[in-house]
Prior knowledge:
The protein is mainly alpha-helical. Helices cover about 50% and strands about 5% of the residues. The protein contains 6 helices and 2 strands; from the N terminus they run αββααααα. The protein has helices at about 1-30, 50-60, 65, 80-85, 95-105, 135-150, and strands at about 35, 45.
Amino acid sequence: MLKRLIILAVATLWFACQVAVGRAEAIELSEEIRTVTLNEQGETLVLSLEQVARGKKLFNFACAQCHLGGKTKTDPNINLALDSLAGATPRRDTVVGLVDYMKRPTTYDGSTDISEVHPSLESADIFPRMRNLTDQDLEDIAGHILLQPKILGKMWGGGKVYN
């Protein structure tokens, strides 16, 4: 009987901690943290908490297989860190740039279409996870990618040192 009470007490404490931690994460994402760059003109977008949650879920569904932690499994020299995204042609360090890339991906220098080897809306017949993604879904994924450096710092896209 005492053993069951101890197990029940431990389980209750564990569930209570899970609820408290979940609430704390949402509160910590201030408007400043949720502000990302919208386009090359420097306009910004404040992501709602719902967009943050959806972006994370959609990124994990459609992108994390190859980009877990912001790194790129197929090419460790290119990751999803802001400096890497900014160095691409066209730039991919904005919501608009990332959405465009997810629709029509090109090589890092922008010279060659890579939609047959990189998931995109252009190649949804080859990559079924892309089939039902809307423009809003792509914006939420882009928001997630641009938000992560603010949350994880160098660990996002940091390569083998951090991931």
